[in-house]
Amino acid sequence: MKIVASALTALFLGVAAAHAAEPAQVKTVGSEQVYTDSHGMTLYTFDKDAVGKSNCDGDCAAKWPPFQANASAKAEGDWTLVKRSDGAMMWAFKGKPLYTYAGDKKAGEMSGDGVGGNWHAAKAG
């Protein structure tokens, strides 16, 4: 019986490892369900981006840091990767590149939502 239980555990862990976890979390910020990074910082989309292309570089990227993907990141489902003009990779949801906002100083803030009419919290659901 122990051998069967061990085999089933190993099989389950192998299947779970084959399915990558989403790179972002869903948190309630105010009354909104939004995506956040692993530190609880709200993620945003930029209206001037094209699907699969970031148009936020230089000073823009200093104020709106890209939601960076590590070298081993793999796209899955609605979560895709976008190559930036500097060669770095960033996460996108449904093709829209994602950013944090330098004006958000702590987890749970959403002060970037609506900035310039072009920035929007990445809403879940």
Automatic annotation (TrEMBL):
Signal in keyword set: yes
Record has Signal as a keyword: yes
Signal sequence extent: 1-20
Keywords noted in UniProt: Signal
Name of this chain's protein: Lipoprotein with Yx(FWY)xxD motif
Organism per entry: Neoaquamicrobium sediminum
